[in-house]
């Protein structure tokens, strides 16, 4: 038994010793295969691929914070325009919370990007939209230091600008406290507005300031009527002394003007303008009261619908309103 035990023990020891590498026991814990699997880390291949992916991500994020390849591709489809800015100009273009930059982009139909710690404004979008954005940016920068001067021969001015003559004595009233009234009108009608001077000053009446309204036709007309209403409320009779009832024959775009009695205005306007707003929403027509004159702007169907609804509103003031609902596509009877 003693011999057999010693033999078995000896054989086991010799087998275990022969299986181990001998002098390098610590190295036996790490297999050669595992060491090879880690070797690419030191070769630099994986690091190169990582650095490439990071660089690619950083390039896409530097534009708009998005990794979407579709948006990056859309941006590269159009050649961008660049405007160099000063620190003061950059702050003025951004506005409080970036609102001025967003407004310019929204009205122009372009995309504006001003990265942090960069003094270069990038403008992308269709060529016409970029031109509009450049003009609006230049107007904002000019407004910061002095007068905004416009050329009446500029194609953008001819196709997308409306001028309103504002009496100098109520220019502050139209602007509002810290520009609050103008900002409200711009937001409501998707426009951007500046007090400007036209080259030559040939059409400027005395003691007036000129308000330029940029945007789409419908928005410009809505903002124009809102400014005119503010002027009339400040200087009663300034506009209404020269306004007459009219009805447009243009089927695509026009303005119908209806005169109301002074005592009827508060009823047609409603509390805080609620009735006027309701009339405009239901008809799809721009409706604004300038003094005791109701202005309705839109296509022919919109104007006719707004006029009909206005008649019903006024009938309710004097008597019960009777409406024939047969063959109408704008009514539900309950």
UniProtKB/TrEMBL annotation:
Residues 77-142, 158-232, 252-315 form the K Homology domain. Residues 33-64 have a biased composition (Basic and acidic residues). Keywords: RNA-binding. Residues 1-75 are annotated as: Disordered. Transmembrane segments: none annotated. It holds the Pfam family KH_1. One of its GO terms (molecular function) is RNA binding. SUPFAM superfamilies: Eukaryotic type KH-domain (KH-domain type I) (SSF54791). SMART domains: KH. The keyword Acetylation does not apply. This is K Homology domain-containing protein. It comes from Eutreptiella gymnastica.
